[in-house]
Design brief:
By secondary structure, the protein is mainly beta. The chain contains no helices and 10 strands. The strands form 2 sheets. It has a 7-stranded antiparallel sheet, with no helix packed on it. It is globular and about 50 Å long. The mean pLDDT is 84.
Length: 149
């Protein structure tokens, strides 16, 4: 699956944009064993560039993946990018996941967040949800594309 995130605006300043996966046929999110790493590259008008800052990593059963931390909720700021999951219906192999998101953080720095990892299970991914830690997704679109093999 490919998810295209376009002009996504959140309601709460400095909130985190997250995703989660369910491996069962109900709403049991947080059941996936995830291994991932997020890297941030930042451009600031006042202090220049910061490249390759670790934005979070984890191993083990988690409630979510932080795709973009500390999002700015200013009226003219939004997130744009993609999230991909490979072989989500496989009952044999782990599932690769990666994202590439550009937006503005709460400190007004333009940031590109890259995340890559995998879902360590041979169970098919049943559901994927996108959400914020404490606020709402105000506006924007998340469009899902699938590839039939």
């Amino acid at each position: 699956f490919l998810f295209r995130i376009s002009k996504l605006h959140i309601s709460a300043d400095t909130d985190d944009f997250k995703c989660d996966f369910s491996l069962t046929s109900d709403t049991d999110y947080g059941s996936a064993t995830l291994t991932y790493l997020t890297i941030r590259s930042t451009q600031s008008e006042s202090s220049g560039n910061s490249v390759g800052t670790a934005g979070g990593s984890s191993t083990g059963t988690l409630g979510n993946i932080n795709i973009f931390k500390n999002v700015s909720a200013d009226d003219d700021h939004a997130l744009d990018g993609t999230l991909e999951i490979y072989n989500p219906s496989s009952t044999t192999f782990t599932k690769g996941v990666r994202s590439d998101i550009i937006g503005v953080r709460g400190d007004n720095n333009v940031t590109k967040c890259l995340m890559h990892g995998d879902i360590r299970s041979s169970t098919a991914v049943d559901k994927i949800k996108f959400y914020c830690g404490s606020g709402n997704l105000d506006s924007g679109t998340i469009t899902q594309y699938g590839v039939k093999t």
